[in-house]
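New to this. Comment on this protein:
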Amino acid sequence: MTNQMQSIHERIMTARRATDNGRGGLSGLDDAASSRRRWLRPLLYGTTCAILLAGGGFGLYQFPVFAETAAQQVTGKPKAAPQPAPRRAQPDNAATPAAAATAPADLFLTHANELGVKTCAATYAGLGKALTEGTQFTVQTQTAKADADRYGVQGVVGMAFPSGKGGYSGTAAGIVFAAPTAQGCEGDMVRVVPFAQNCQAAAAFLPKGSQPLQPLSGIAIYALSTGGQAMLMPSGNGCVAISILRSTS
């Protein structure tokens, strides 16, 4: 009897151990699954963060392009870089351009004074007045950069004759030049006026009392009653009048 009860007890204990072993196996599986979940979770978080950072970095990289495009749409075409201001060329002399003025003598005299021309200032101004009388003009005065009073002074002039004055209307060009001498100063003025008429008709525009002189190589030349000379040179169907005036002081 005792042996039989012991046998039953052993069978019960054996069954319990078998059951415990089964549970132990399942517990091991649960532990392994938990362990995998523990390292998979950070991996998933890390991957997600990497993707988000990569996307954010791409957005930051593209932002300047978007901003530039928006600015171009708002402002239109990109503005060109500012160009440096141009410099006036001054080879071997100084130049002082000026706009048209109502007092020609004052303008030529002002240029001479500004450039340091003293000896020939009056001669230069007088020739300039004779050249530009009755016109609207622009003059560029040139002389030496240093010690200008010892050298010649030159004015390059563009002129416009208003209609109804002197019977001629249109453009003309001229040069005024004065240089110091041992006795003072001397200078010359040359004016070039193109006429649409032939030279015979253009001679009617000369001052009254002008006298014809011996032609020079077929070009008519006149002694003007107001002083100086004039040459009439045929040019196609028209005529070019060249006036010359000399002055000493």
